[in-house]
Amino acid sequence: MARFAGSVQCIRRLVWPFGCMLVLFGYVSIASPSRGRRLICWQAIMKCQGEPECYYAYGQYLHACGPVINGE
Predict the structure, then answer these.
(1) Dihedral sign computed on CA atoms, order 53, 54, 55, 57
(2) pLDDT attached to residue 63
(3) pTM
(4) The pLDDT of residue 17
(5) Other CB atoms closer than 10 Å to residue 48's CB: what's the count?
(6) Can you tell me the mean pLDDT for 43-59?
(7) Which one of 54, 57, 59, 72 has the fewest CB atoms closer than 10 angstroms to its CB?
């Protein structure tokens, strides 16, 4: 019986850190795609801005990436 009580306490000690890790991992994984899309948009806009024939595509990049860059 004492062994069982000790096992339960050990499991309780492990549940809190594991639960916190799951919550933190979920938050990070949800937040990541937005940063990735924002970086891709900035890279596309900066690359296009340096090319002389890219005026039409530059306007499209700005229109498509506007909400991502503004955080909407």
Answers:
(1) positive
(2) 80
(3) 0.37
(4) 62
(5) 18
(6) 73
(7) 72
Q: Which residues of 10-38 are buried (b: 16+ CB within 10 A; e: fewer)?
A: eeeeeeeeeeeeeeeeeeeeeeeeeeeee
The secondary structure of the chain, three-state, reads CHHHHHHHHHHHHHHHHHHHHHHHHHHHHHHHHHHHHHHHHHHHHHHHHCCCCCHHHHHHHHHHHHHHHHCC
In terms of phi and psi (left: phi > 0; alpha: psi -120 to 50; beta: otherwise), the region of 69 is: alpha
Tokens of 47: 């690359």
Helices 55-70, 2-49: axis angle to 10 degrees equals: 150
Length of the chain: 72
pLDDT surpasses 60 at 2: no
